[in-house]
Amino acid sequence: MALWDVYYTVTNLDDAIRLLREHKEKARIMAGGTDLIVELQNKARTPSVLIDVTRVAGLDEIRLGYDDLIHIGPMVTHAQAAASPLLQEQARPLAQACWWVGAPALRNRGTIVGNLVTASPANDTITALRALRARLLLRSARGDRTVSIADYYTGVRRTVMEPDEMVADVMFAPLTANQRGVYLKLGLRRVLAIAVTNVAVVVKLDEHQHVTCARIALGSVAPTIIRAPEAEAALKGAPLDADRIAEAARLAAQAARPIDDVRGSAWFRTEEVSALVQRGLEAILVGDTRLGLPEPDALVRLWGKTKRAPKLRGPMIAHHTGGDEPIQCVVNGENVSVQGANGKTLLHMLRDDLGLTGAKPGCEEGECGACTVWLDGMATLACLTPAPRAHGASIVTVEGLSKDEQLHPVQQAFIDEDAVQCGYCTPGFVMSAAKLLEEMPHPTREQIKTALSGNLCRCTGYYKIIRAVEKAAEKQ
User: Fold this and answer.
1) What tens digit of pLDDT does each residue of 271-326 get?
2) In whole angstroms, how far apart are CA 460 and each of 53, 381, 418, 455, 464?
3) Residues pairing with 200 in the sheet
4) pLDDT digits (tens, 9 = 90+) for 442-466
5) Which residues pair with 239 in a beta bridge?
6) Could you name the CATH architecture of 322-475?
7) Is 156 within 8 Å of 123 (Cβ atoms)?
8) CATH classification of 61-296, choosing from 3.30.465.10, 3.40.50.720, 3.40.50.150, 3.30.160.100?
9) What is the pTM of this model?
10) CA quadruple 348, 350, 355, 358: dihedral sign
């Protein structure tokens, strides 16, 4: 069954705004799609028209503007943000939040604005942006309006955005030299975990190291992201010390209004609010606010040598489900033209229409990595990528990894190290590992673990898999 009826690929923002005005409630903007595709599959949202803005030039920029504000475009991915020197230095809570989203291949597609529009109180970046006092520029054919992030949300997965509007910009003031900020998260596992609780803290200190301003944002403990004003007030007017930190943590827990759900009880969430706020303030006190965030050059992205995806030129393209418009792309070095895949994900186009069954349907929610391919040079989850997004793009699957009948060093190392058991997850692991070695020819073990963190092996063969990647790196 088709997931949508019409898929528009636009090359300028005016066309996107015009289509939103024309289709209104029937349309959704397609950027990363990592949330939207899952919602479509689960019928949580049922738009018939998708408007793809991934080819619009300039929407993926992170910049410090002439207004002295940091601006984030609607196509800025979590991977870009986490690796941004500007955000790491002057908006660290946001960079940390983006680093905690999913795993590398998911971060390569998912966008900050997509996180904001999905409007789940458990989403990572919303909490960080709440502490940074972000504002959103909403654009429609009727004009622009600016809304503070505090006023943007009206409830769980509900916002003030009208059907004909899109988020065109996110803006906030950078942290100054006397401000410190951190983001912390508790999930049920280290990666690919929705937050049980998350916290962002920003503190401003004067020349005597007294707190002059504090902002504490709490996620996954109320219908929307909330602040803890009593805890913030308890910190002001004195230096940070153990007693004030403990009192602020206690008051922050009192501000939480959590519920019981499958990820944790209300009691547990309340306890974790206190623990995370305390841990964040202690990190600020001792001056260690990176909290494990790698430096930009050491951060695993699985981009290889890619810097930016190519842009389409020319008029808008519309792919209709059941229509004759082919998806034309390059797959494993060959030009292909596929008809009848316009309402599918890239995973099912590769498997059903092209017979490339190396990419596997595992979870089809972006949580297992079995469908990992390279889209325009970046590791990408095919199950969360619309097939029409591949129009004009270059795709490499595990079938295209070997050259001239010679296995890729990673493939050979998997054989040599017996790093294969049932084999179902193997293509995803191989594609992630091969892209890592293109990006970092001599990775550390921790970088290897990060690169493979989005790939699950149900046979628990991780030790040999990691060893195979190390062997492939040695032989390069």
Assistant:
1) 999 999 999 999 999 999 999 999 999 999 999 988 766 677 788 888 998 787 89
2) 39, 21, 13, 11, 9
3) 183, 217
4) 999 999 999 999 999 989 889 999 9
5) 210
6) Roll (3.10)
7) no
8) 3.30.465.10
9) 0.96
10) negative
